[in-house]
Amino acid sequence: MPVFFRTAEHLAPWAGGMVARDLWFTAPPRMTARGVPDGGCPFEVQVHGVTARGIAWGEGDTVVYLVHGWGGRGSQLAAYVEPLVALGYRVVLFDTPSHGDSDAGREGRGRTHGIEFGDTLAAVMERFGPAYAVVAHSLGAVSTYIGLRGGAVSTKRLVLIAPMVEATPYFDMFQQVLGFGPRTRRAFDRAIDRFVGFPIEEFDARSIAAAVPRIPTLVVHDLGDLETSPVLARQLAEGLPDARMITTTGLGHRRIVTDPEVVTQVVDFLSQSAGDLSGPDLSGMIDQKGVEASA
Fold this sequence. Notes:
Blueprint lengths: L1 H10 L1 H12 L16 E7 L2 E8 L5 E5 L13 H6 L3 E5 L19 H15 L2 E7 L1 H12 L4 E7 L6 H11 L3 H15 L8 H5 L7 E6 L7 H10 L3 E6 L6 H4 L1 H12 L13 E2 L5 E3 L1
Parallel strand pairs: 3-4, 3-5, 5-6, 6-7, 7-8
Antiparallel strand pairs: 1-2, 2-4, 8-10, 9-10
Helix pairs in contact: 1-2, 2-7, 4-5
């Protein structure tokens, strides 16, 4: 593949850009299904003519949506279902196109992108109603923000677990791995803009968050996460007027989703009354499990 990109750089950078774009938007192999609590009601929604599937638990209009990230599936977040249902929430998880049990995305087998993630959340929300809270992992975080900016998504609380904050550093790494040059990179950037209908430089949770209404937010990130940046996550949290951040050690990008202490912290945040959300200054407090909270 590097030979192809070196050749394309000189002879046909547009072709190199298209191939790189197709590789970028091809989702990893579908994650194996994980167990979910009994009693859920399966459902389907249509997203641009594609069928997305999920499961809902509980009743009522106080709804918590669980949003997975790139290469994930809704059942990754199943640990949140029982404690939230026990508190009286309706809990909804789903698989985005080309992930889990949902059909392929509208761009073809195995392909999807962050805008389609956000559109899927909006379609599920249209089915079950506005969110009391959204709990989003990785790419699901910035995709939720895109939905919020467009108005198709609304929520009173937001939890971002190992959030992907901006796309550009990942494009830079992708370019290095494939070994394509600046002409192909420019073609790649243009191809992405056309593909998703959204300028890649605007795919940044920090700037999008500044353009949406204030939302009480909890950011959770592991200091050793090698897939999304804890530094950028802290920048995001520090730029939000109603945010607190929890950092962990030793959980990485995926185990942080199901860690029992993290689940407890998230559920506690969602169950607090509005007057308690500002909370005391927890900066510097570290418990025995290595979870640090900061206001």
